[in-house]
Amino acid sequence: MREIRLRINGIERELHVEDNETLLEALRNRAGVTSVKAACWRGECGLCTVLLNGRPVKSCSTLAVEADGKTVETAEGLYFDKRAKGLMESFVRNGATQCGFCTPAFVVASHALLLRNPKAEDEDIKEGLKGLICRCGTYVNMMRAVKEARQYYADGKQTA
Fold this sequence. Notes:
Shape: globular
Oligomer: single chain
Largest sheet: 5 strands, mixed
Number of domains: 2
């Protein structure tokens, strides 16, 4: 076992992990972060996507020890960001949350996209959400939701 330190959703945490333990396993099993979904375990579906130092990564193919000293943001943590909360509400209004299993990953990836490009158009959104799979196929509704949510990111700063 090895001790790592992470800032998870704004809270400093110390976790004891195995050298071969994934960030996904550490978040779910050691830190109790349940929005990070375990689905394919091969980095193919993207449902385990989190932000690692602000960059979207697939946590099932990232070792927990690689995240030592870094910041991890998940859907739970984004709820307190007014921009991301607006994005989440947009997902609901536009019917982009059919079964909800993939929603946390899509929200995290969409948030990262809109932080980088608050004027994202269709091709930008497709690129930003590439590699994430929705079993219900609500992609059109997600596109609409992300485009609607651009208004929350337009000024480039979080409004508390």
